[in-house]
Amino acid sequence: MTFHQNSIKSVTLDALVRDNATNEFVSVTLRRLTVPLDLVHARYDPRPSPKFAPLLLESVPERPRSLLPPLGEAHLHARLGKFIGDGHSSVVFELDDVQLDSSCPDPRSVPSLVVKIARSNRLAALARDAWFYDEMECLQGSSIARCYGWFEVELSSGQSVPAWNEHPAEDPDEHDFALDIDKKVHPDQLKRTARRDVLSVLVLEKLGERLQPGPHPDDVKSDVMSLYEDASHLGISIAQDVRRQNILEAPHDEPCLPSLPSPFNSRTHSWRVVDFELSVKINYTPLQFKMNYISHVKHMFQDAEEEARPDYLLTSSPFAVEDDFPDSEC
Ligand SMILES: Nc1ncnc2c1ncn2[C@@H]1O[C@H](COP(=O)(O)OP(=O)(O)OP(=O)(O)O)[C@@H](O)[C@H]1O
Fold it and tell me: Could you give the ipTM of this predicted complex?
């Protein structure tokens, strides 16, 4: 039997949650949640006149039918491994010693995995991320990471998650912008924003390194552009979060699964996009999306080049002093 994105029903994680009384780590078991279909509402921009037809569709594209088998019964047990990265909403770690119980499948179909752990005040953002992974199921393994599910558990009083404090957000009180995107916020999301005692994670295929600072050849630029174009075919805009931190190499650490060709242009990408909490589903045509992305992607590659300049930190620092003197005075 093959391990697929629907195989896991529950996850036990070691070395993530600490019992404050004993100061020892305890294992916690998280159960899989199904993301409500209406968690995110599509946005519809009415056409002001027929001449906008090349830019705005008459309706928002429907979610393609899932090609995954029904939810499986597998249980995954793993230990929190190396810290990989973090952001406003989450901390991401490798999963070590991954074991699947006997209801599961051919080990050759199990790739290296990571766990994306929502910060305690960002549960709603992770739920949005999970919704977009479902929505873009047909791009998993080609333009975006494979997602093996969204899992949660309520923490008991006296339990803590050291990873939250060891890798704090730059601004822990920053407003959660993921909540501003949907005109009508789903009631589950409102409940999530009030909770601080829930451990919520996504289990994802482990991808490679982030797009690095520095100049990049045209083939990389066009590959990255076509990742966003793939999402456009599903009516999904990721334009709010075009950053090199969200563009990762296709997986190469063994064990890994081969990259699949894009269902829209048959291209096998060398890169993947992650992080969809700020994404939007909308009735734009691929042309309208492309017009939006061209400038975002261009600026991202320009910024990447700037970042590699030796004086980047000096010139980009908030303390940098503007040179007020014209050359002639120096
Ligand atoms: N599937 C993955 N494989 C390998 N590394 C990953 C994966 N997903 C995320 N990362 C790493 O973790 C970092 C943080 O992930 P991500 O951007 O999804 O977090 P976030 O908290 O949602 O970010 P933000 O809210 O600031 O946009 C990424 O920049 C990347 O380095």
Answer: 0.98
